[in-house]
Amino acid sequence: MENSGEHKQQEERTSLDEKTDSNQMQTFPVQVPQHIPVLHRSHSTRTNYFLDVKSNRNDCLLGRIVIESRPESAPEMCRVFHNFVCGIGGIYLGSKMMKGIPDKYIIFQNAIVKDGGGAMFPADENDLVIRRGAIGMRSQGFENGRKLVKSQFYIVLSDNPPSDGQFSYVFGYLTAGYSVCDELSKMGHGENVIISDLGILVK
């Protein structure tokens, strides 16, 4: 009888664990690649993120972009970018390149989120220089005197970016992948370029 009771308790604990795991999985709106260390480090420390891009036409890998964040100057934008790389609330995996202009910039779409939209939030005002290799989030206008952005992000490819109001404050810089970005910029409206893999580079 004792063995039977212990066996029943074990079955109940196993069932509870399965339910708990199921509930935890439901908090993720999209599937996250297994190798991404979601909780490896905080968005409040400088972090290197990689983005692999491929052609959506022939599934050919186009290269890797590596971005280093600057949370000491742009904490909110770094927090949002970190979360969407790690799959918290949405993810950049599968996002397409919206536009590229040679020697100027490339822009990627909003992160893919559960409700299909993307909330606006205030940009971090800072003194980081908008130069070749700078990463920022696209401007969406102003509210109460503060510039608003969405999760669309751009990569500047010139030391003299166009002053067309699209560029908000910087939250990081390229550390690798300049030639990849230069090639992407020649593709114009890049609906056929997508982010195929992404994650955190651990030193």
3D structure, described in words:
It comes from Daphnia pulex (Water flea). This protein has 203 residues and is an alpha+beta fold. It has one domain (31-201): Beta Barrel (Cyclophilin), CATH 2.40.100.10. Helices cover 22% and strands 35% of the residues. It is built from three helices and eleven strands, in the order H-E-E-H-E-E-E-E-E-E-E-E-H-E. It has helices spanning 2-25, 75-86, 178-185; strands at 48-55, 61-69, 90-91, 97-101, 105-108, 112-113, 121-122, 134-143, 146-156, 167-176, 193-201. The strands form two sheets. Strands 1, 2, 4, 5, 7, 8, 9, 10 and 11 form a nine-stranded antiparallel beta sheet that branches. Strands 3-6 form a two-stranded antiparallel ribbon. Strand 8 and strand 9 (146-156) form a beta hairpin. The longest helix has 24 residues, at 2-25. The protein is globular.
Architecture blueprint of SSEs:
Blueprint: H1 2-25, E1 48-55, E2 61-69, H2 75-86, E3 90-91, E4 97-101, E5 105-108, E6 112-113, E7 121-122, E8 134-143, E9 146-156, E10 167-176, H3 178-185, E11 193-201
Antiparallel strand pairs: 1-2, 1-11, 2-10, 3-6, 4-5, 5-9, 7-9, 8-9, 8-10
Q: What labels would you give this structure?
A:
single chain, 203 residues, alpha+beta, Cyclophilin, 9-stranded antiparallel beta sheet, two-stranded antiparallel ribbon
Largest sheet: 9 strands, antiparallel
> Can you name the CATH architecture?
Beta Barrel
Q: β content, as a range?
A: 35-45%
Mean pLDDT: 77
The number of strands is 11
Computed Rg: 20 Å
Distance between the termini: 55 Å
Query: How large is the count of helical segments?
Result: 3
CATH H-level superfamily: Cyclophilin-like
Low-confidence stretches: 6-41
**Which CATH C-level class is it?**
Mainly Beta
Could you say which structural class the secondary elements and strand pairing correspond to? alpha+beta
Helix content: 10-25%
Total domain count: 1
Provide the CATH topology. Answer: Cyclophilin
Global outline: globular
Order of helical and strand elements: HEEHEEEEEEEEHE
